[in-house]
Specification:
Layout: E1 7-10, H1 14-25, E2 30-33, H2 44-51, E3 59-61, H3 64-69, E4 76-79, H4 85-94, E5 103-106, H5 112-124, E6 128-135, H6 137-143, E7 146-151, H7 156-166, E8 177-179, H8 185-212, H9 219-229, H10 237-245, E9 249-250, E10 253-254, H11 268-279, H12 284-296, H13 299-308, H14 320-349, H15 355-361, H16 371-382, H17 390-413, H18 418-430, H19 437-448, H20 466-471
Parallel strand pairs: 1-2, 1-4, 2-3, 4-5, 5-6, 7-8
Antiparallel strand pairs: 6-7, 9-10
Helix pairs in contact: 1-6, 5-8, 8-11, 8-12, 8-14, 9-10, 11-12, 12-18, 14-17, 14-18, 15-16
Length: 472
């Protein structure tokens, strides 16, 4: 019995393979399972054990019952499967084979509400369920990912040692792994991570478009500029890989220009955008980034419209210094919206989430790791919002003119700056003492008798306008 592994992993796709190798490299004994599809997927687990030296001692299986019986109790089984029906199918097959106290850890990109349902269902069967957001891609899964856990609280201490062992470690040596709350908390945080990621990518795309729209600038100028940015507080993983990507060429031409301009998405950006609307929190940068991808996919329509509505650009000299200031400010807005979304969800779902812990989780091993994120670990220990943090208050007040000037130039260049514009509109709205929402309330009361509160009274009773009497 003592020779049996108590960790098992199901699903040996790219992420599952990398994660299993990570476990093995850290001394965790494993049993591996992959389904068998005649002529397509045969002896996958066995082939992996033969291919990767670190998996030589792992036990390979194609029979789920034999896989489960090979594990020591309490069994700890990680699922690395496609979200949705495939995950539910395997869970349904696993459940009758497991015993009370066994643990299932679902590491796919599942919707947090699905994770909540699975947790409730398995709890009733006496099986612990943890939803685990995994960020870092193939490389991160192998060398150290960011791990965001939610679900059965009493199960986490039973798996924490090994998960913290395989997780990324930030500059201070802290593991980027934590339990965040019941049900779908872990997958919710991963979803917000992906929403922030969408906006970070789009902001860099807009920086790219802004620079190359200037006839005096080229890809080399842009790459050199991003190289300089990497030496500053702007440094991030996405900035780093963008700098690297721009250096590739083919036949002495920038390779980036050989890539068709149609951006794809896998759904998590849409989930984040829709969830923000459901929560009633402004996540306009995530939404702008998502809709930018949607619009880009309409290549044929864009090409036809470009003929119908030709753009006559007026020359504008690009201020590279102003562009950096704008980029930095927009990133602050993006992160602010993401963390506010988490705060709202924590209150709604009863998750005791510390924002400093979230910043720590995202400080290494994930796609949105950055100098900014690392600095937020300490800032969130004393402040609850980015808009309360003195360094960022000073930065916004000092650099806002550069942001304004860049938007003006973008209009004259006739280029879309969807995320930069969304960040500006949000900041203008959230810092506006008196808004135009009183007119909205009047309109709603006129056609729907929804009522409003008056400015000249502290009475919280809903009032109606004089038009109500006139209509009656």
């Amino acid at each position: 019995m003592m020779n049996k592994p108590n960790w098992g992993l199901i699903g040996l796709g790219v992420m599952g393979t990398s994660l299993s190798r990570n476990f093995a490299q850290n001394g965790v004994s494993l049993a591996l399972f992959n389904r068998r599809l005649e002529g397509k997927e045969e002896k996958i687990a066995e082939k992996h054990c033969n291919k990767y030296p670190e998996l030589k001692a792992a036990l390979p299986f194609e029979d789920l019952s034999l896989f489960v019986n090979a594990l020591q109790s309490p069994r700890k089984i990680v699922l690395m499967l496609t979200a949705g029906a495939a995950t539910d199918s395997v869970i349904d097959q696993l459940t009758p084979l497991l015993e009370k106290g066994d643990i299932i850890i679902e590491g796919g990109n599942s919707h947090f509400e699905d994770t909540q349902k699975r947790a409730d269902k398995l709890e009733a069967a006496g099986i612990h369920f943890l939803g685990m957001g995994v960020s870092g891609g193939e490389e991160g899964a192998l060398t150290g990912p960011s791990l965001m856990l939610g679900g059965a609280e009493k199960a986490y201490p039973l798996v924490a040692k090994e998960l913290e062992m395989i997780a990324a470690k930030n500059e201070k040596g802290a593991p980027c792994c934590a339990y965040l709350g019941s049900g779908g908390a872990g997958h919710f945080i991963k979803m917000v991570h992906n929403g922030i990621e969408y906006a970070e990518m789009q902001l860099l795309a807009e920086v790219y478009e802004f620079v190359i729209s200037d006839q005096n600038q080229d890809i080399n100028t842009l790459q050199n500029m991003l190289g300089e940015w990497l030496k500053t507080s702007s440094k991030s993983y996405l900035l780093e890989i963008t700098h690297v990507l721009l250096g590739f060429s083919e036949n002495q031409h920038p390779f980036i220009k050989l890539i068709r301009d149609e951006a794809s998405n896998k759904g998590t950006g849409a989930w984040a955008t829709a969830t923000g609307a459901k929560l009633g929190t402004a996540n306009s940068l995530m939404a702008a980034a998502l809709h930018s991808r949607f619009t880009s996919s309409n290549k044929g329509i864009r090409e036809q419209n470009a003929k119908t509505f030709p753009k006559q650009q007026r020359h504008q000299e690009v201020s590279l210094e102003g562009l950096k200031k704008t980029y930095d400010l927009c990133r602050l807005i993006n992160h602010h919206q993401g963390f506010e979304m988490i705060r709202e969800a924590a209150q709604l779902y009863g998750w005791n989430i510390n924002l400093s812990t979230i910043a720590l989780l995202w400080s290494e091993g994930c796609i949105i790791k950055s100098n900014l994120m690392f600095s937020l670990i300490d800032h969130f220990k004393s402040k609850s919002s980015i808009f309360e943090m003195e360094p960022f208050i000073d930065q916004i007040n000092t650099d806002i003119v550069a942001w304004e000037e860049l938007l003006e130039k973008g209009i004259k260049l006739r280029i879309p700056l969807n995320c930069i514009s969304a960040a500006w509109q949000y900041f203008m709205s959230i810092t506006q003492k008196q808004s135009s929402a009183n007119l909205i309330q009047a309109q709603r009361d006129y056609f729907g008798a929804h009522g409003f509160l008056r400015t000249d009274s502290n009475d919280k009773t809903v009032q109606h306008g004089p038009w109500a009497r006139k209509k009656n």
